[in-house]
Amino acid sequence: MDDPLRVLDLADAPEQWEDIERRVPRPTMPTSSSPWRRTLTVVVALTVAIAGLSFAVSTFTSGGGSMPTATVANGRIAFSGFDGTSWQIYSVEPDGTGLTQLTHVSDLEFGGESAWSPDGKRIAYVVQGFHEDGRTDRSDLWVMNADGSDPRQLTDGPGSSWSPAWSPDGTKIAFARGEPANVYVIGADGSGLRRLTSLTAGDESASRASMGLNPSWSPDGSQIVFAPDGEVEKDLYVVNADGSDESILLHMPGWQIEPAWSPDGRSILFTSSGPDGADFGIYAVDADGTNPHRLSDQPAAQPAWSPDGGQIAFTALRPGSDHAALYVMNADGTDVHEIPGLPVEATFPSWQPLSEESNPAPSSLPTPIETPTPSPISTAEIGQTIDVGQASALLYADGSLWVDVLRDAATSAGTVLRIDPSSGEIQARIAVEAYPASEHGGSGMVFDGRYLWIVGIRWSTDGPAGGILQRIDPGTNRAETIDLPVGVTDVDLVFDNGFLWTTGTSSPGKDPRVLQIDPVTGEVVSETPIDAQWWGGLVVEDGAIWIMEMSVRNSTVQGDATLVRLEPGTGSVLARVSAVDEDGVMASTMPVASEGVIWLPTGGELLALDPQTGEVLARFDLAVGGDFESVPDGSVWCLCGFGWNELQRLDPASGKVDVSVHLDRKPIPIAMVKAPGSIWVLTYEGTLTRVVLK
Predict the structure, then answer these.
(1) Of 317, 274, 318, which is closest to residue 55 (Cα–Cα)?
(2) Across 356-390, where does the E strand assignment appear?
(3) Pairwise CA distance, residues 22 & 36, whole Å
(4) What are the phi and psi torsion angles at 298 (to 5°)?
(5) Can you tell me the distance from the alpha carbon of 435 to that of 444, in angstroms, rounded to the nearest whole number?
(6) Domain 6-355 grouped into CATH 2.30.30.100
(7) Domain segments of the chain: what residues?
(8) Which fold has domain 380-693?
(9) Preceding amide of 259 cis, omega within 30
(10) Which residues are bridge partners to 489 per DSSP?
């Protein structure tokens, strides 16, 4: 969302809201709606004023994150503090000594949540911007050293980013972003941005995704707990670190927010309220979702574990005061005491781990290619053939075959046929504007786990009128169009790490670039320029962008095919891999990516490459001619041979072709796709043939 604070405008205020707002300190700034006033309202807006000790709650995370296993001591506590003029990030010893201001953001910025890295040497934090008239700007993630030096911006829109949480190995940061809010993961160096959850507007997830999330990693790095929002009730959810198996961990009446996984992995802290939104307190639940229990009779919020798991820091209003402070208690809820000597307001605690040694970063060296053994196939026979019409894009997804057939050559509009792969029966015909024409076919259409996506160009009588994406919901067979900020798109479309990737130009041949697109919002997240005379064949694997280049002389493509890795954002070349064989011959098709591998065909070989470095992991004697596909069982299927009419399966484990089917050379096969128990082959003349596998 552009403003994560905006959710407060949509929430029902507790009875004390008006009184709380009157108590918020104002900086000396000529506006009746100061950003600091609104920011502190975030801290206290959900609080119920209770006589004695009253505690604050926030829509943001408590920070913290998971801790390394080598922790030997509890370090300093980082927090967001307001000194009467501005909000900055501070750190302090748990006993209140050694208070240090770490950030120096401007008076039109707010230093918000913070999270220590597992080695205790860096801090991820949030900076929220404001306008002179008090309107909030977006928030972004930053990283700095433990002493406040070397601040670096990690995200730069679009939309706001908040709630940072380091992965246990220190290589990644989970955070909340967007509207509706989703959990994202980004490399600690700012690379490899990907969306982890798929909370979308218009479905059940939308009501859960308007605020919060507060991701926290399990100590082994395998799961993330988070707290999507709901209008009446808010549950705790867990999701695997790869984005799979999202499920409810805990359902209780009222709101459950701000989860924090314990350093030993056995329990999770969270803030809970009653069904009426009152009586906030800190609770704990076993990591399997059982045994939820309150830790203290006193209300509290924003829990953050000490690295040794023995104590908990949290936020409260000082007794008899209107100002938020930091408190520490034992893990069982006893011995509550305030941290003395802090600024006027103190919120968002995060506890520094002190470890014997820093967690080493994973090796950048590639590992030998490892693939499962493909399923045995005793026979492969040519079965039925159906006429579909001139087509190129072919895909198997969500239990169906999908074929984009040209409907109107003048406008390049198409009709997507949804086909039952077991019978060949056409189940639906869906009119679309996009038709990704390709010489080889099989390009321009992907499935993101929920929607089918097609890239294309909208045409007018004057020529190309802009690049577009078409999104089809398999549940309704309805299509919608998303306009792209390019005049012309190519046939490349990839789904990787929660994002769509495609290529385009401002006009034919002008300003080529790679677009990274959020499939939830349709927004272009980043653009990477392409500096090449001829380019094509986009592949993206784990955030690494690769594209084919060739030289052009006298307005003619000469060859010199090279696969290059581009630096996201700048387009600088990070690596190069020759795409020709020892005789200087290139393949007639483009590379594809699978889990952890990029497959690059040359004239006489198929190369398996490390997607980060481009190092050749394996070479296979396979002359890929037309379309080819790496499938989940580890095998590679291709239209091989000079006429693209040899359907073959390569077993990478043995390095041998173990299945081969001879197809007719006319009509010419141009695309293929693997479906359960069969391979479907699309031809240049618009027929679709099934090869039955047994």
Answers:
(1) 317
(2) 380-387
(3) 13
(4) -80, 140
(5) 8
(6) no
(7) 6-355, 380-693
(8) Methylamine Dehydrogenase; Chain H (2.130.10)
(9) no
(10) 504
